[in-house]
Amino acid sequence: MKIEVLREDITTFDVDAIVNAANKTLRGGGGVDGAIHRAGGKEILEECKEIGGCETGEAVITTAGKMPARHVIHTVGPVWDGSENNEDELLQNCYKNALQLAVEYNLKTIAFPNISTGVYGFPKERAARIAVETVGQMLNDDESSVKQVFFICFDKENYDLYTNILEG
Ligand code: AR6
Question: Following DSSP, what letter does each residue of 89-114 receive, concatenated?
Answer without folding.
Answer: HHHHHHHHHHHHHHHHTT--EEEE--
